[in-house]
Write a structure and sequence with these properties.
alpha+beta, 8-stranded mixed sheet, 29 strands, about 15% helix
Length: about 525
């Protein structure tokens, strides 16, 4: 009996020891809502660690990778969504550092050089279950970072913690310094070539008479270290190959994570990729024009199925006997010089009002300001304007439902649920305005959860990215950074998706053309 009890105690101690010593800091990945959600846990320690540095890691990595909108494949849209959790600890052996990568942060003086590293993470994904299609993780890794590492460098190192490899060749640059003091162009050789005595001797032998070899180097700890790198072919602007200002994540990075984890985008995530793919159960696609639906009365739903739409003026569809619809995009259905009335009939605009913009229209499902000039293409959002996604209502009203009076807003009923209302749906910043607000309201029942899907270029920024209206309205702030936009007119859409409907906010910005410098007139 005593022996059995001793064995139980020993087993308990062993289990406790195993749990406390084998708990691994990890990066986890899973597929949820057609997004490849990656979570990275980091514990920082060392003389350069601080709460401010922890915040900078989180912001630098998330801003870089989440703005990239990378995909899991060429067809299926499973965007990469990164969440970084950072804590500061005295020692990574402490229990609170379990399930975190341990990064030692060194203090780097002004002008000092430090080369950051991450070990034990790249190409190290393992499954958490036998299916290898639900969850995966990367066990604990370590890092050696510097207090003066740039945001791009931090985002690059976090990329390693997502299992990504370097996409550059480590090596050395050299040039010949001639006897007259001039130099030849820099030449690159790989690290292996530099360490090859024959190849290094050949470089020495090929120098011009009287010249010396000048190696490109960094200064580290008072010693000359000859370390440089060159992006691999086709990866010149990849964040995993460079940390220059124009380096960014690429689609291939999310594809690599998808391949390494075994997490694949299911067929239903391909809906909305601008292609009608019958082999994936689609009868249409709402991002392509025409959508693929045969009958004129049909619309393409958000699950890429054709459905009959009841002719309701203001629902965004031109359904016979309607001649137009004020919320149809990119065109209302009327010719130039005509306006779409609240009865969905085209009417010639008076000459003195031809440039007026807002037309107020409220329907049984939403009430919003609709600009007449939404005929314009959405502009440079990264896709062909003809393939720009158009927000489709997810609820179709039966054919026997009467068309409401256009000026009436429906009163919420107990069975109605949340209903999205966005005002305004057109923001014209002109040449000078830099910030405007959009009010997101719920004219139905219960809380309304919404998410922002921006289809705008850099230079047009909106926040917050998500929110809950319960019951007070949310304010979406839209900022313009003209120095990041090209001269001329830029138009795009901000899509607001919710469990109570969808809406698109059209954004228009103008940037002045640079004034050419006057050509001096020659003096006779």
């Amino acid at each position: 009996m005593k022996l059995k009890k001793i064995a139980q105690i020993f087993l308990s101690i062993f289990i406790l020891f195993f749990l406390t010593t084998s708990s691994q800091g990890k990066t986890t990945a899973k597929l949820e809502d057609c997004k490849l959600k990656v979570e990275v846990n980091i514990a920082i320690t060392g003389p350069g660690a601080s709460n401010a540095y922890a915040s900078r890691i989180k912001q630098a990595a998330e801003n870089e990778w989440n703005n990239a909108k990378v995909k899991c494949g060429e067809e299926c849209k499973c965007e990469l969504e990164l969440t970084v959790n950072v804590i500061q600890v005295d020692d990574c052996s402490k229990p609170e550092a379990n399930d975190h990568h341990c990064v030692t942060v060194k203090n780097v003086p002004v002008g000092g050089y430090h080369r950051p590293t991450v070990t034990g993470t790249a190409s190290n994904w393992t499954p958490e279950d036998s299916t290898r299609n639900q969850n995966a993780n990367i066990p604990s890794g370590t890092g050696d970072w510097g207090s003066r590492d740039s945001n791009k460098t931090i985002a690059h190192e976090v990329g390693h913690m997502m299992g990504l490899d370097d996409e550059y060749t480590d090596g050395y640059y050299y040039r010949y310094k001639k006897s007259d003091g001039t130099y030849t162009n820099w030449q690159f050789i790989s690290k292996d070539d530099y360490n090859n005595a024959d190849k290094k001797k050949k470089i020495e032998d090929n120098k011009p008479a009287g010249a010396t070899v000048d190696w490109y180097h960094y200064q580290q700890n008072g010693r000359r270290t000859f370390i440089a790198s060159k992006p691999k072919a086709g990866k010149e602007k990849s964040l995993m190959a460079s940390v220059k200002a124009d380096a960014k994540p690429e689609d291939s990075h999310a594809e690599d994570i998808s391949n390494d984890t075994g997490i694949e985008c299911p067929d239903e995530c391909c809906c909305g990729d601008g292609k009608v793919q019958g082999d994936k159960g689609e009868s249409c696609d709402y991002k392509v024009n025409p959508t693929g639906c045969k009958a004129q009365e049909e619309v393409c739903t958000r699950n890429c199925k054709c459905a009959v739409a009841t002719p309701i003026c203001g629902d965004g569809y031109i359904t016979p006997p309607e001649e137009c619809d004020p919320k149809a995009k990119p065109k209302t259905g009327c010719e130039a010089g005509e306006e779409c009335t609240q009865g969905c009939k085209c009417k010639k605009m008076p000459e003195n009002t031809a440039t007026e913009k807002p037309v107020e229209d409220t329907t049984a499902t939403e009430a919003a300001t609709v600009p007449d000039d939404q005929e314009t293409s959405p502009g440079d959002g990264g896709d062909d304007p003809t393939l720009t996604p158009e927000p489709e209502p997810t609820t179709y009203i039966p054919t026997d439902t009467p068309t409401p009076t256009p000026t009436e807003t429906p009163s919420p009923t107990e069975s109605q649920g949340p209903i999205l209302e966005v005002v305004p749906t057109f923001l014209d910043f002109g040449l000078t305005d830099d910030v405007k607000q959009v009010t997101i309201s719920n004219i139905g029942d219960g809380p309304l959860v919404w998410n922002l899907i921006p289809e705008c270029p850099e230079g047009i920024f909106a926040e917050p990215p998500t929110g809950v209206v319960d019951p007070d309205p949310n304010i979406l702030e839209v900022y313009i950074f003209r120095d990041m936009l090209p001269p001329g007119n830029t138009s795009c859409y901000l899509y607001i998706m919710s469990d109570g409907g969808e809406e698109a906010v059209s954004v228009n910005v103008e940037v002045e053309e640079p004034t050419p410098e006057p050509t001096p007139t020659p003096t006779p």
